[in-house]
Design a protein that fits this description.
It contains eight helices and seven strands; from the N terminus they run βαβαββαβαβαβααα. The strands form two sheets. The protein has a five-stranded parallel beta sheet. A two-stranded antiparallel ribbon has the order 3-7. It folds into two domains: 105 residues, Oxidized Rhodanese, domain 1, CATH 3.40.250.10; 55 residues, no CATH class. Helix 4 links the parallel strand 5 and strand 6. Helices cover 51% and strands 13% of the residues. By secondary structure, it is of the alpha/beta class. The longest helix has 22 residues.
């Protein structure tokens, strides 16, 4: 089934009328730092189409999937659309929370902590910078540090498995 999109201003109108549930499929740390008021956080990694099918049978409201920019929301839509009972009741917020904010609509801010992805970017960037400086000034062996982090980021992007994210979670820093 092809994706159905809804723009931010149309969604805001439908939300005010009580016609939709906004399902935020980002991870909990992203949701806690900022989200659309009234949205429900069900991460893509734990999304169960059958439970949404049961909810939609109890309500006439339409389910709108939303994430940061639209990629994970599209994946959620496709996952749920595979279940015939849900497909007519779902759509995607085009452009995600970024488009929502660009339309001048308000969001609810949480603790203000950085998302896990931002923490990974900061740590990896720091070690790439440090390894490069040390490699240029002290010994060329330090170029192995940016190589290690670059390979790790590439591997995480290709496979979806990020060792640094797992480590940060185990250390309680996520």
């Amino acid at each position: 089934m092809s994706e159905k999109y809804i723009d931010a201003t149309e969604l805001a109108d439908k939300q005010k009328k009580g016609e939709t549930y906004i399902i935020d499929v980002r991870e909990p740390d992203e949701y806690q730092s900022e989200h659309i008021e009234g949205s429900i956080n069900i991460p893509l990694s734990t999304l169960d189409p059958c439970s949404l099918a049961r909810l939609s049978s109890e309500s006439k409201k339409k389910y709108i999937f939303q994430c940061a920019s639209g990629k994970r929301a599209t994946e959620a839509f496709q996952k749920v659309s595979a279940q015939d009972s849900c497909s007519k009741e779902c759509a995607i917020l085009e452009g995600g929370i970024s488009a929502w904010k660009q339309a001048g609509l308000s969001t609810q801010s949480g603790t203000g902590s950085l998302s896990l992805f931002r923490k990974i970017q900061i740590i990896a960037g720091f070690f790439v910078f440090l390894g490069t400086v040390l490699g240029l000034t002290i010994h060329s062996g330090f170029f192995g540090i940016p190589l290690f982090f670059g390979c790790g980021l590439f591997f995480a992007g290709v496979t979806g498995w990020c060792g640094m994210a797992i480590l940060l979670k185990k250390l309680g820093l996520a």
